[in-house]
Amino acid sequence: MEVSILTLCYLVGSVTFIIGLKMLSNPASARNGNLLAAAGMGIAIIGTIFLYEEDGKKLGNYPWIFGGILIGGIIGTLSAKKVKMTAMPEMVSMFNGMGGACAALISAVEFDHLFQTHRGAESAWLFDFVAGGHYLTIIAGAIIGSVSFAGSMIAWGKLSGKIKDMSFRGQHIVNLLVLLLVLATAAFTYQSNVQSANIPFYITVGLALVYGILFVMPIGGADMPVVISLLNSFTGVAAACGGFLYNNKVMLTGGILVGAAGTLLTILMCKAMNRSLKNVLIGSFGGSSAAGAAGVKKDQGSYKEITLSDTAVVMSYANKVLIVPGYGLAVAQAQHACHELEKLLESKGVEVKYAIHPVAGRMPGHMNVLLAEADVSYDKLMEMEQANDEFPTTDVVLILGANDVVNPAAKTDPSSPIYGMPILDVELAKNVIVNKRSMKPGYAGIENDLFFQPKTSMLFGDAKKVLQDLIGEIKNL
Amino acid sequence: MESILGWIADNQQMIYIVILMIFVGIEVIGHVPSVLHTPLMSGANAIHGVVIIGAIIVMGKADPHNYVALILGFLAVVVGTLNVVGGFVVTDRMLEMFKGKGKKQNTSSK
Protein backbone atom coordinates (compact mmCIF):
# COMPACT_ATOMS: atom_id res chain seq x y z
CA MET A 1 0.00 0.00 0.00
CA GLU A 2 2.66 2.48 1.06
CA VAL A 3 4.83 1.62 -1.88
CA SER A 4 1.99 2.28 -4.26
CA ILE A 5 1.46 5.68 -2.63
CA LEU A 6 5.13 6.36 -3.29
CA THR A 7 4.65 5.39 -6.93
CA LEU A 8 1.81 7.90 -7.05
CA CYS A 9 4.07 10.56 -5.49
CA TYR A 10 6.66 9.93 -8.18
CA LEU A 11 4.04 10.06 -10.90
CA VAL A 12 2.80 13.41 -9.58
CA GLY A 13 6.39 14.63 -9.38
CA SER A 14 7.16 13.68 -12.97
CA VAL A 15 4.01 15.30 -14.31
CA THR A 16 4.61 18.55 -12.40
CA PHE A 17 8.15 18.70 -13.81
CA ILE A 18 6.86 18.47 -17.35
CA ILE A 19 4.03 20.94 -16.84
CA GLY A 20 6.27 23.22 -14.78
CA LEU A 21 8.85 23.36 -17.54
CA LYS A 22 6.14 24.03 -20.09
CA MET A 23 4.78 26.90 -17.98
CA LEU A 24 8.29 28.25 -17.46
CA SER A 25 8.63 28.85 -21.15
CA ASN A 26 5.72 31.29 -21.21
CA PRO A 27 6.14 34.69 -19.51
CA ALA A 28 2.62 34.79 -18.11
CA SER A 29 2.74 31.45 -16.35
CA ALA A 30 6.45 31.16 -15.61
CA ARG A 31 6.32 31.91 -11.92
CA ASN A 32 3.52 29.47 -11.21
CA GLY A 33 5.33 26.88 -13.29
CA ASN A 34 8.33 27.18 -11.04
CA LEU A 35 6.19 26.85 -7.92
CA LEU A 36 4.38 23.86 -9.39
CA ALA A 37 7.64 22.05 -10.11
CA ALA A 38 8.85 22.91 -6.61
CA ALA A 39 5.68 21.45 -5.10
CA GLY A 40 6.10 18.28 -7.14
CA MET A 41 9.68 18.04 -5.98
CA GLY A 42 8.56 18.42 -2.35
CA ILE A 43 6.03 15.60 -2.74
CA ALA A 44 8.63 13.31 -4.31
CA ILE A 45 11.19 14.05 -1.59
CA ILE A 46 8.82 13.61 1.35
CA GLY A 47 7.44 10.46 -0.25
CA THR A 48 10.93 9.04 -0.59
CA ILE A 49 11.89 9.77 2.99
CA PHE A 50 8.85 8.17 4.58
CA LEU A 51 7.57 5.60 2.11
CA TYR A 52 10.60 4.23 0.28
CA GLU A 53 11.40 0.63 0.99
CA GLU A 54 13.81 -1.85 -0.52
CA ASP A 55 13.40 -5.58 0.05
CA GLY A 56 10.72 -4.73 2.59
CA LYS A 57 13.12 -2.55 4.57
CA LYS A 58 12.49 1.11 5.26
CA LEU A 59 15.18 3.74 5.11
CA GLY A 60 17.17 4.46 8.24
CA ASN A 61 19.58 7.14 9.40
CA TYR A 62 16.81 9.73 9.70
CA PRO A 63 18.88 12.14 11.81
CA TRP A 64 21.50 12.25 9.06
CA ILE A 65 18.91 12.77 6.33
CA PHE A 66 17.02 15.52 8.13
CA GLY A 67 20.29 17.10 9.27
CA GLY A 68 21.52 17.24 5.67
CA ILE A 69 18.26 18.61 4.33
CA LEU A 70 18.11 21.22 7.07
CA ILE A 71 21.67 22.43 6.49
CA GLY A 72 21.33 22.40 2.71
CA GLY A 73 17.91 24.05 2.89
CA ILE A 74 19.06 26.88 5.14
CA ILE A 75 22.23 27.63 3.21
CA GLY A 76 20.38 27.33 -0.11
CA THR A 77 17.54 29.65 0.88
CA LEU A 78 19.78 32.25 2.47
CA SER A 79 22.28 32.41 -0.37
CA ALA A 80 19.53 32.48 -2.99
CA LYS A 81 17.67 35.25 -1.15
CA LYS A 82 20.73 37.36 -0.45
CA VAL A 83 22.36 37.21 -3.85
CA LYS A 84 22.25 40.43 -5.85
CA MET A 85 20.43 40.48 -9.18
CA THR A 86 23.74 40.94 -10.97
CA ALA A 87 25.16 37.83 -9.37
CA MET A 88 22.28 35.51 -10.26
CA PRO A 89 24.07 33.82 -13.17
CA GLU A 90 26.94 32.65 -11.02
CA MET A 91 24.49 31.53 -8.35
CA VAL A 92 22.75 29.30 -10.90
CA SER A 93 26.13 27.90 -11.86
CA MET A 94 26.97 27.23 -8.22
CA PHE A 95 23.70 25.35 -7.60
CA ASN A 96 24.21 23.41 -10.80
CA GLY A 97 27.62 22.35 -9.56
CA MET A 98 26.05 21.17 -6.32
CA GLY A 99 23.68 18.94 -8.28
CA GLY A 100 26.61 17.50 -10.20
CA ALA A 101 28.51 16.87 -6.98
CA CYS A 102 25.45 15.14 -5.55
CA ALA A 103 25.24 12.76 -8.51
CA ALA A 104 28.97 12.02 -8.30
CA LEU A 105 28.78 11.36 -4.55
CA ILE A 106 25.87 8.96 -5.00
CA SER A 107 27.90 7.04 -7.54
CA ALA A 108 30.90 7.01 -5.21
CA VAL A 109 28.84 5.58 -2.36
CA GLU A 110 27.28 2.95 -4.62
CA PHE A 111 30.68 1.96 -5.93
CA ASP A 112 32.04 1.78 -2.41
CA HIS A 113 29.12 -0.47 -1.54
CA LEU A 114 29.93 -2.84 -4.44
CA PHE A 115 33.58 -2.75 -3.53
CA GLN A 116 32.97 -3.56 0.14
CA THR A 117 30.61 -6.41 -0.74
CA HIS A 118 32.92 -8.14 -3.17
CA ARG A 119 36.43 -7.33 -1.98
CA GLY A 120 36.56 -10.45 0.15
CA ALA A 121 36.55 -12.65 -2.95
CA GLU A 122 39.88 -14.27 -3.78
CA SER A 123 41.46 -12.67 -6.82
CA ALA A 124 38.59 -12.17 -9.21
CA TRP A 125 37.66 -9.41 -11.63
CA LEU A 126 35.08 -6.80 -10.96
CA PHE A 127 33.09 -7.75 -14.04
CA ASP A 128 32.51 -11.21 -12.60
CA PHE A 129 30.31 -9.68 -9.95
CA VAL A 130 28.81 -6.59 -11.45
CA ALA A 131 26.60 -6.43 -14.54
CA GLY A 132 27.90 -4.16 -17.28
CA GLY A 133 24.80 -1.96 -17.33
CA HIS A 134 24.90 -1.48 -13.59
CA TYR A 135 28.56 -0.52 -13.66
CA LEU A 136 27.92 1.78 -16.60
CA THR A 137 25.26 3.78 -14.75
CA ILE A 138 27.49 4.13 -11.70
CA ILE A 139 30.56 5.23 -13.60
CA ALA A 140 28.60 7.47 -15.97
CA GLY A 141 26.97 9.23 -13.02
CA ALA A 142 30.37 9.66 -11.40
CA ILE A 143 32.08 11.02 -14.51
CA ILE A 144 29.31 13.31 -15.75
CA GLY A 145 28.59 14.56 -12.23
CA SER A 146 32.26 15.33 -11.62
CA VAL A 147 32.71 17.15 -14.93
CA SER A 148 29.58 19.16 -14.24
CA PHE A 149 30.70 20.00 -10.71
CA ALA A 150 34.23 21.07 -11.62
CA GLY A 151 33.06 22.94 -14.73
CA SER A 152 30.33 24.79 -12.86
CA MET A 153 32.74 25.87 -10.15
CA ILE A 154 35.08 27.31 -12.78
CA ALA A 155 32.15 29.03 -14.51
CA TRP A 156 31.10 30.44 -11.15
CA GLY A 157 34.63 31.70 -10.50
CA LYS A 158 34.80 33.32 -13.92
CA LEU A 159 31.48 35.09 -13.66
CA SER A 160 32.29 36.43 -10.22
CA GLY A 161 35.67 37.59 -11.50
CA LYS A 162 37.70 35.28 -9.28
CA ILE A 163 39.16 33.26 -12.14
CA LYS A 164 40.64 34.69 -15.31
CA ASP A 165 40.42 33.08 -18.73
CA MET A 166 43.32 30.80 -19.31
CA SER A 167 44.34 28.79 -22.31
CA PHE A 168 47.56 27.41 -23.67
CA ARG A 169 48.73 26.19 -27.01
CA GLY A 170 47.28 22.83 -27.93
CA GLN A 171 44.80 22.88 -25.10
CA HIS A 172 42.10 21.26 -27.20
CA ILE A 173 44.34 18.29 -27.81
CA VAL A 174 45.22 18.05 -24.13
CA ASN A 175 41.52 18.22 -23.27
CA LEU A 176 40.74 15.46 -25.71
CA LEU A 177 43.53 13.31 -24.28
CA VAL A 178 42.28 13.82 -20.74
CA LEU A 179 38.79 12.84 -21.84
CA LEU A 180 40.11 9.68 -23.49
CA LEU A 181 42.10 8.92 -20.36
CA VAL A 182 38.92 9.25 -18.28
CA LEU A 183 37.17 6.72 -20.51
CA ALA A 184 40.18 4.43 -20.43
CA THR A 185 40.46 4.37 -16.65
CA ALA A 186 36.70 3.89 -16.45
CA ALA A 187 37.01 0.81 -18.66
CA PHE A 188 40.10 -0.34 -16.75
CA THR A 189 38.22 -0.15 -13.44
CA TYR A 190 35.71 -2.64 -14.74
CA GLN A 191 38.48 -5.00 -15.82
CA SER A 192 40.51 -4.67 -12.67
CA ASN A 193 40.92 -6.92 -9.70
CA VAL A 194 38.00 -6.65 -7.34
CA GLN A 195 40.29 -6.24 -4.34
CA SER A 196 41.80 -3.03 -5.61
CA ALA A 197 39.09 -1.74 -7.95
CA ASN A 198 38.53 1.34 -5.83
CA ILE A 199 41.87 2.86 -6.82
CA PRO A 200 41.21 3.16 -10.58
CA PHE A 201 37.67 4.30 -9.73
CA TYR A 202 38.89 7.26 -7.73
CA ILE A 203 41.50 8.02 -10.38
CA THR A 204 38.66 8.14 -12.92
CA VAL A 205 36.73 10.58 -10.75
CA GLY A 206 39.85 12.70 -10.25
CA LEU A 207 40.53 12.83 -13.98
CA ALA A 208 36.89 13.72 -14.66
CA LEU A 209 37.27 16.68 -12.27
CA VAL A 210 40.43 17.76 -14.12
CA TYR A 211 38.59 17.46 -17.42
CA GLY A 212 35.76 19.65 -16.12
CA ILE A 213 38.25 22.35 -15.19
CA LEU A 214 40.15 22.17 -18.49
CA PHE A 215 36.90 22.13 -20.44
CA VAL A 216 35.63 25.46 -19.10
CA MET A 217 38.95 27.21 -18.47
CA PRO A 218 39.63 28.53 -22.00
CA ILE A 219 36.06 29.66 -22.70
CA GLY A 220 35.56 33.40 -22.38
CA GLY A 221 33.37 34.90 -19.69
CA ALA A 222 30.88 36.21 -22.23
CA ASP A 223 30.06 32.66 -23.23
CA MET A 224 29.56 31.40 -19.69
CA PRO A 225 25.73 31.37 -19.93
CA VAL A 226 25.95 28.91 -22.80
CA VAL A 227 28.44 26.79 -20.86
CA ILE A 228 26.30 26.85 -17.72
CA SER A 229 23.30 25.78 -19.77
CA LEU A 230 25.32 22.93 -21.24
CA LEU A 231 26.61 21.81 -17.83
CA ASN A 232 23.04 22.09 -16.61
CA SER A 233 21.98 19.48 -19.13
CA PHE A 234 25.00 17.35 -18.13
CA THR A 235 23.82 17.34 -14.54
CA GLY A 236 20.38 16.34 -15.79
CA VAL A 237 21.91 13.29 -17.46
CA ALA A 238 23.91 12.49 -14.32
CA ALA A 239 20.69 12.60 -12.30
CA ALA A 240 19.09 10.27 -14.83
CA CYS A 241 21.95 7.80 -14.26
CA GLY A 242 20.87 7.77 -10.62
CA GLY A 243 17.36 7.02 -11.85
CA PHE A 244 18.66 3.95 -13.68
CA LEU A 245 20.62 2.89 -10.64
CA TYR A 246 17.61 2.84 -8.33
CA ASN A 247 15.05 2.07 -10.99
CA ASN A 248 13.54 5.37 -9.91
CA LYS A 249 11.17 6.86 -12.47
CA VAL A 250 10.99 10.39 -11.13
CA MET A 251 14.77 10.80 -11.13
CA LEU A 252 14.84 9.43 -14.63
CA THR A 253 12.08 11.68 -15.98
CA GLY A 254 13.40 14.78 -14.22
CA GLY A 255 16.98 14.11 -15.27
CA ILE A 256 16.33 13.31 -18.92
CA LEU A 257 13.80 16.12 -19.22
CA VAL A 258 16.43 18.62 -18.08
CA GLY A 259 19.07 16.91 -20.17
CA ALA A 260 17.02 17.29 -23.35
CA ALA A 261 15.55 20.71 -22.59
CA GLY A 262 18.96 21.96 -21.43
CA THR A 263 20.61 20.86 -24.64
CA LEU A 264 17.97 22.56 -26.75
CA LEU A 265 18.20 25.69 -24.59
CA THR A 266 21.97 25.73 -25.09
CA ILE A 267 21.47 25.62 -28.83
CA LEU A 268 18.81 28.35 -28.68
CA MET A 269 21.17 30.57 -26.69
CA CYS A 270 23.89 30.03 -29.26
CA LYS A 271 21.41 30.92 -31.99
CA ALA A 272 20.58 34.18 -30.23
CA MET A 273 24.24 35.06 -30.62
CA ASN A 274 24.34 33.65 -34.15
CA ARG A 275 27.12 31.25 -33.24
CA SER A 276 27.35 27.50 -33.23
CA LEU A 277 27.95 25.48 -30.09
CA LYS A 278 31.19 24.18 -31.55
CA ASN A 279 32.32 27.72 -32.12
CA VAL A 280 31.59 28.58 -28.49
CA LEU A 281 33.39 25.55 -27.10
CA ILE A 282 36.39 25.50 -29.38
CA GLY A 283 36.50 29.04 -30.71
CA SER A 284 37.36 30.47 -27.30
CA PHE A 285 35.71 33.85 -27.68
CA GLY A 286 38.23 36.51 -26.84
CA GLY A 287 40.82 33.82 -26.23
CA SER A 288 44.44 34.33 -27.12
CA SER A 289 44.25 32.95 -30.65
CA ALA A 290 41.52 35.32 -31.83
CA ALA A 291 43.04 38.33 -30.12
CA GLY A 292 46.46 37.43 -31.45
CA ALA A 293 45.26 37.37 -35.04
CA ALA A 294 43.80 40.85 -34.70
CA GLY A 295 46.78 41.88 -32.65
CA VAL A 296 47.87 44.71 -34.88
CA LYS A 297 46.09 47.61 -33.38
CA LYS A 298 44.38 49.80 -35.90
CA ASP A 299 44.66 53.50 -35.52
CA GLN A 300 41.12 54.27 -34.50
CA GLY A 301 41.33 58.02 -34.65
CA SER A 302 40.03 59.96 -31.72
CA TYR A 303 36.76 59.94 -29.87
CA LYS A 304 34.92 62.94 -28.53
CA GLU A 305 33.55 63.44 -25.08
CA ILE A 306 30.31 65.14 -24.18
CA THR A 307 29.50 67.00 -20.99
CA LEU A 308 26.55 66.21 -18.77
CA SER A 309 24.81 69.50 -19.48
CA ASP A 310 25.10 68.99 -23.23
CA THR A 311 23.70 65.51 -22.84
CA ALA A 312 20.84 66.89 -20.81
CA VAL A 313 20.00 69.42 -23.49
CA VAL A 314 20.26 66.95 -26.36
CA MET A 315 18.04 64.45 -24.59
CA SER A 316 15.34 66.76 -23.35
CA TYR A 317 14.85 68.36 -26.77
CA ALA A 318 14.75 65.06 -28.62
CA ASN A 319 11.54 63.54 -29.92
CA LYS A 320 12.55 59.99 -29.40
CA VAL A 321 15.22 58.50 -27.16
CA LEU A 322 16.24 54.85 -27.17
CA ILE A 323 18.16 53.46 -24.25
CA VAL A 324 20.46 50.48 -24.86
CA PRO A 325 21.29 48.85 -21.53
CA GLY A 326 24.23 46.51 -21.06
CA TYR A 327 26.28 44.90 -18.36
CA GLY A 328 27.50 48.31 -17.14
CA LEU A 329 23.93 49.06 -16.06
CA ALA A 330 23.78 45.83 -14.11
CA VAL A 331 27.13 46.38 -12.42
CA ALA A 332 26.24 49.91 -11.39
CA GLN A 333 22.74 48.82 -10.29
CA ALA A 334 21.54 51.81 -12.25
CA GLN A 335 18.15 50.42 -13.26
CA HIS A 336 16.18 52.62 -10.87
CA ALA A 337 18.03 55.77 -11.94
CA CYS A 338 17.38 54.70 -15.50
CA HIS A 339 13.65 54.41 -14.89
CA GLU A 340 13.67 57.82 -13.22
CA LEU A 341 15.35 59.37 -16.24
CA GLU A 342 12.76 57.72 -18.47
CA LYS A 343 9.88 59.18 -16.43
CA LEU A 344 11.46 62.63 -16.36
CA LEU A 345 11.97 62.68 -20.11
CA GLU A 346 8.45 61.42 -20.73
CA SER A 347 7.07 64.25 -18.60
CA LYS A 348 8.85 66.59 -21.03
CA GLY A 349 7.13 64.90 -23.94
CA VAL A 350 10.05 62.79 -25.10
CA GLU A 351 9.27 59.30 -26.24
CA VAL A 352 11.57 56.88 -24.38
CA LYS A 353 12.04 53.19 -25.14
CA TYR A 354 14.55 50.50 -24.41
CA ALA A 355 16.32 48.39 -26.99
CA ILE A 356 17.24 45.03 -25.59
CA HIS A 357 19.77 42.86 -27.34
CA PRO A 358 19.11 39.16 -26.66
CA VAL A 359 22.51 38.66 -25.09
CA ALA A 360 22.97 42.05 -23.43
CA GLY A 361 24.40 41.62 -19.97
CA ARG A 362 25.77 38.31 -18.91
CA MET A 363 22.74 36.15 -19.61
CA PRO A 364 19.83 36.23 -22.01
CA GLY A 365 16.99 38.13 -20.38
CA HIS A 366 19.33 39.74 -17.85
CA MET A 367 18.32 43.27 -18.86
CA ASN A 368 14.62 42.51 -18.89
CA VAL A 369 14.83 41.22 -15.36
CA LEU A 370 16.78 44.24 -14.15
CA LEU A 371 14.50 46.80 -15.79
CA ALA A 372 11.42 44.95 -14.60
CA GLU A 373 12.84 45.21 -11.11
CA ALA A 374 12.84 48.99 -11.50
CA ASP A 375 9.18 48.84 -12.63
CA VAL A 376 9.92 49.76 -16.21
CA SER A 377 6.77 49.00 -18.13
CA TYR A 378 7.08 45.89 -20.23
CA ASP A 379 5.82 47.44 -23.44
CA LYS A 380 8.72 49.89 -23.41
CA LEU A 381 11.16 47.05 -23.91
CA MET A 382 11.82 46.30 -27.54
CA GLU A 383 13.51 43.23 -28.89
CA MET A 384 16.34 43.60 -31.33
CA GLU A 385 14.46 43.41 -34.66
CA GLN A 386 11.84 45.84 -33.44
CA ALA A 387 14.48 48.26 -32.18
CA ASN A 388 16.46 48.11 -35.41
CA ASP A 389 13.36 49.34 -37.26
CA GLU A 390 13.15 52.30 -34.92
CA PHE A 391 16.74 53.54 -34.92
CA PRO A 392 16.47 55.54 -38.18
CA THR A 393 13.73 57.68 -36.63
CA THR A 394 15.48 58.05 -33.29
CA ASP A 395 17.12 61.29 -32.22
CA VAL A 396 19.29 60.08 -29.38
CA VAL A 397 20.51 56.61 -28.47
CA LEU A 398 21.87 56.37 -24.94
CA ILE A 399 24.08 53.33 -24.48
CA LEU A 400 24.54 52.37 -20.87
CA GLY A 401 27.49 50.05 -20.45
CA ALA A 402 26.82 47.96 -23.54
CA ASN A 403 29.63 47.36 -25.97
CA ASP A 404 29.86 44.21 -28.04
CA VAL A 405 26.14 44.17 -28.84
CA VAL A 406 26.48 47.53 -30.63
CA ASN A 407 29.84 46.89 -32.27
CA PRO A 408 29.54 47.41 -36.03
CA ALA A 409 32.52 45.10 -36.53
CA ALA A 410 30.04 42.24 -36.18
CA LYS A 411 28.76 43.27 -39.60
CA THR A 412 31.73 44.74 -41.36
CA ASP A 413 34.87 42.97 -40.18
CA PRO A 414 35.05 39.27 -41.07
CA SER A 415 38.20 38.84 -38.96
CA SER A 416 36.42 40.00 -35.81
CA PRO A 417 35.61 37.23 -33.30
CA ILE A 418 32.04 38.50 -33.08
CA TYR A 419 31.57 38.67 -36.85
CA GLY A 420 28.10 37.48 -37.77
CA MET A 421 26.47 38.21 -34.44
CA PRO A 422 23.33 40.27 -34.98
CA ILE A 423 23.72 43.69 -33.37
CA LEU A 424 21.68 46.76 -32.60
CA ASP A 425 22.18 49.21 -35.46
CA VAL A 426 22.57 52.24 -33.23
CA GLU A 427 24.58 54.14 -35.81
CA LEU A 428 21.38 54.70 -37.80
CA ALA A 429 20.19 57.15 -35.16
CA LYS A 430 20.99 60.86 -35.30
CA ASN A 431 23.08 60.94 -32.12
CA VAL A 432 24.71 58.22 -30.12
CA ILE A 433 25.79 58.86 -26.55
CA VAL A 434 27.84 56.10 -24.97
CA ASN A 435 28.20 55.83 -21.24
CA LYS A 436 31.13 53.70 -20.17
CA ARG A 437 33.52 53.71 -17.31
CA SER A 438 36.55 53.91 -19.56
CA MET A 439 37.68 53.19 -23.10
CA LYS A 440 38.46 49.59 -22.15
CA PRO A 441 37.12 47.06 -24.64
CA GLY A 442 34.08 44.94 -23.77
CA TYR A 443 33.89 41.34 -22.77
CA ALA A 444 34.93 39.96 -26.12
CA GLY A 445 38.12 41.96 -25.77
CA ILE A 446 37.84 43.86 -29.03
CA GLU A 447 37.84 47.51 -29.95
CA ASN A 448 34.60 49.13 -30.96
CA ASP A 449 34.63 51.37 -34.03
CA LEU A 450 31.35 52.86 -33.00
CA PHE A 451 33.05 54.98 -30.36
CA PHE A 452 35.16 56.69 -32.96
CA GLN A 453 32.39 57.61 -35.36
CA PRO A 454 31.53 61.29 -35.75
CA LYS A 455 27.96 60.78 -34.51
CA THR A 456 29.13 59.21 -31.30
CA SER A 457 29.96 61.04 -28.09
CA MET A 458 31.37 59.46 -24.97
CA LEU A 459 30.08 60.14 -21.49
CA PHE A 460 32.47 58.53 -19.05
CA GLY A 461 31.58 57.47 -15.54
CA ASP A 462 29.69 54.96 -13.46
CA ALA A 463 26.25 54.45 -15.01
CA LYS A 464 24.31 55.13 -11.82
CA LYS A 465 26.17 58.30 -10.92
CA VAL A 466 26.03 59.61 -14.47
CA LEU A 467 22.28 58.99 -14.68
CA GLN A 468 21.63 60.67 -11.35
CA ASP A 469 23.67 63.71 -12.37
CA LEU A 470 21.93 63.74 -15.72
CA ILE A 471 18.54 63.76 -14.01
CA GLY A 472 19.71 66.70 -11.91
CA GLU A 473 20.87 68.57 -15.00
CA ILE A 474 17.61 67.99 -16.87
CA LYS A 475 15.60 69.19 -13.89
CA ASN A 476 17.65 72.38 -13.81
CA LEU A 477 17.12 73.19 -17.45
CA MET B 1 27.84 -8.11 -25.21
CA GLU B 2 25.30 -10.50 -23.78
CA SER B 3 25.29 -8.66 -20.50
CA ILE B 4 24.54 -5.39 -22.27
CA LEU B 5 21.65 -6.96 -24.17
CA GLY B 6 20.37 -8.51 -20.99
CA TRP B 7 20.59 -5.17 -19.28
CA ILE B 8 18.59 -3.54 -22.05
CA ALA B 9 15.96 -6.25 -21.75
CA ASP B 10 15.81 -5.80 -17.98
CA ASN B 11 15.48 -2.06 -18.24
CA GLN B 12 13.32 -1.68 -21.29
CA GLN B 13 10.70 0.37 -19.43
CA MET B 14 13.36 2.80 -18.33
CA ILE B 15 14.80 3.03 -21.80
CA TYR B 16 11.38 3.82 -23.21
CA ILE B 17 11.03 6.60 -20.64
CA VAL B 18 14.40 8.02 -21.62
CA ILE B 19 13.52 8.17 -25.28
CA LEU B 20 10.09 9.66 -24.73
CA MET B 21 11.41 12.20 -22.24
CA ILE B 22 13.99 13.42 -24.73
CA PHE B 23 11.16 14.30 -27.10
CA VAL B 24 9.03 15.80 -24.35
CA GLY B 25 11.94 17.93 -23.13
CA ILE B 26 12.59 19.31 -26.58
CA GLU B 27 8.93 19.83 -27.38
CA VAL B 28 8.08 21.53 -24.10
CA ILE B 29 10.54 24.41 -24.38
CA GLY B 30 10.59 24.65 -28.17
CA HIS B 31 9.05 28.12 -28.35
CA VAL B 32 10.58 29.91 -25.42
CA PRO B 33 11.20 33.65 -25.96
CA SER B 34 14.81 34.68 -25.35
CA VAL B 35 13.70 36.82 -22.39
CA LEU B 36 12.97 33.63 -20.50
CA HIS B 37 16.17 31.75 -21.31
CA THR B 38 17.79 32.53 -17.99
CA PRO B 39 14.81 31.76 -15.71
CA LEU B 40 14.12 28.62 -17.73
CA MET B 41 17.70 27.46 -17.32
CA SER B 42 17.50 28.20 -13.63
CA GLY B 43 14.20 26.32 -13.33
CA ALA B 44 15.60 23.33 -15.18
CA ASN B 45 18.60 23.53 -12.88
CA ALA B 46 16.29 23.20 -9.89
CA ILE B 47 14.45 20.27 -11.48
CA HIS B 48 17.58 18.18 -11.94
CA GLY B 49 17.97 18.59 -8.21
CA VAL B 50 15.67 15.55 -8.18
CA VAL B 51 18.99 13.73 -7.81
CA ILE B 52 18.48 14.45 -4.08
CA ILE B 53 16.15 11.44 -4.04
CA GLY B 54 19.09 9.23 -4.90
CA ALA B 55 21.07 10.86 -2.11
CA ILE B 56 18.28 10.20 0.38
CA ILE B 57 18.11 6.56 -0.68
CA VAL B 58 21.89 6.18 -0.39
CA MET B 59 21.83 7.81 3.01
CA GLY B 60 18.89 5.79 4.25
CA LYS B 61 20.38 2.49 3.13
CA ALA B 62 23.84 3.14 4.51
CA ASP B 63 25.10 0.86 7.22
CA PRO B 64 25.24 3.00 10.41
CA HIS B 65 28.78 1.74 11.01
CA ASN B 66 30.14 2.48 7.56
CA TYR B 67 31.39 5.99 8.08
CA VAL B 68 32.66 6.49 4.54
CA ALA B 69 29.19 5.84 3.17
CA LEU B 70 27.57 7.93 5.91
CA ILE B 71 29.77 10.95 5.34
CA LEU B 72 29.64 10.81 1.54
CA GLY B 73 25.88 10.23 1.68
CA PHE B 74 25.42 13.10 4.10
CA LEU B 75 27.40 15.43 1.84
CA ALA B 76 25.28 14.25 -1.09
CA VAL B 77 22.08 15.13 0.80
CA VAL B 78 23.44 18.57 1.72
CA VAL B 79 24.56 19.53 -1.79
CA GLY B 80 21.45 17.98 -3.34
CA THR B 81 19.22 20.05 -1.08
CA LEU B 82 21.26 23.13 -1.94
CA ASN B 83 20.57 22.46 -5.60
CA VAL B 84 16.83 21.97 -5.14
CA VAL B 85 16.08 24.71 -2.62
CA GLY B 86 18.55 27.26 -3.96
CA GLY B 87 17.48 26.55 -7.53
CA PHE B 88 13.78 27.07 -6.96
CA VAL B 89 14.28 30.15 -4.76
CA VAL B 90 16.62 31.84 -7.26
CA THR B 91 14.22 31.08 -10.11
CA ASP B 92 11.34 32.52 -8.11
CA ARG B 93 13.31 35.67 -7.41
CA MET B 94 14.10 36.10 -11.08
CA LEU B 95 10.49 35.60 -12.08
CA GLU B 96 9.26 37.89 -9.33
CA MET B 97 10.78 40.67 -11.42
CA PHE B 98 8.44 39.83 -14.26
CA LYS B 99 5.30 40.36 -12.27
CA GLY B 100 3.03 43.12 -13.41
CA LYS B 101 4.39 42.49 -16.83
CA GLY B 102 1.92 43.44 -19.53
CA LYS B 103 0.10 45.73 -17.11
CA LYS B 104 0.58 49.41 -17.60
CA GLN B 105 1.17 50.38 -14.02
CA ASN B 106 2.92 48.52 -11.31
CA THR B 107 1.99 48.94 -7.69
CA SER B 108 4.96 47.34 -6.03
CA SER B 109 7.60 49.79 -4.96
CA LYS B 110 10.50 47.42 -4.68
UniProtKB/TrEMBL annotation, chain A:
How is it placed in the membrane, per its record?
Multi-pass membrane protein
Q: Where is the NADP transhydrogenase beta-like domain?
A: 8-471
Can you supply one Gene Ontology CC term for this chain's record? plasma membrane
Cellular localisation? Cell inner membrane
Q: Name one GO molecular function term.
A: NADP binding
A Pfam family of the record is PNTB
Q: EC?
A: 7.1.1.1
Q: Could you tell me what this protein is called?
A: NAD(P) transhydrogenase subunit beta
Q: Which UniProt keywords apply?
A: Cell inner membrane, Cell membrane, Membrane, NAD, NADP, Translocase, Transmembrane, Transmembrane helix
What does this gene product do?
The transhydrogenation between NADH and NADP is coupled to respiration and ATP hydrolysis and functions as a proton pump across the membrane.
The record lists the catalysed reaction(s) as: NAD(+) + NADPH + H(+)(in) = NADH + NADP(+) + H(+)(out)
Q: What family is it from?
A: Belongs to the PNT beta subunit family.
Q: Where are the transmembrane segments?
A: 5-23, 35-52, 64-80, 92-109, 129-152, 173-193, 199-219, 226-246, 252-270
Automatic annotation (TrEMBL), chain B:
Q: What is its EC number?
A: 7.1.1.1
Q: Which domain of life does this protein belong to?
A: Bacteria
Q: Which UniProt keywords apply?
A: Cell inner membrane, Cell membrane, Membrane, NAD, NADP, Translocase, Transmembrane, Transmembrane helix
List the InterPro entries hit by this protein, alphabetically: NADP_transhyd_a_C
Name one cellular component (GO) term: plasma membrane
Q: Tell me which residues make up the NAD(P) transhydrogenase alpha subunit C-terminal domain.
A: 15-99
Q: Where are the transmembrane segments?
A: 14-32, 44-62, 68-91
Which biological process annotations from GO are given for this protein? NADPH regeneration
Select a single GO molecular function from the record's annotations and give it. NADP binding
Q: Kindly state which reaction or reactions the protein catalyses.
A: NAD(+) + NADPH + H(+)(in) = NADH + NADP(+) + H(+)(out)
Task: State the top-level EC class.
Answer: translocase
Topology with respect to the bilayer: Multi-pass membrane protein
Its localization reads: Cell inner membrane
Q: What does this protein do?
A: The transhydrogenation between NADH and NADP is coupled to respiration and ATP hydrolysis and functions as a proton pump across the membrane.
Name of the protein this chain belongs to: proton-translocating NAD(P)(+) transhydrogenase
- Lineage, top ranks: Bacteria, Pseudomonadati, Bacteroidota, Chitinophagia, Chitinophagales
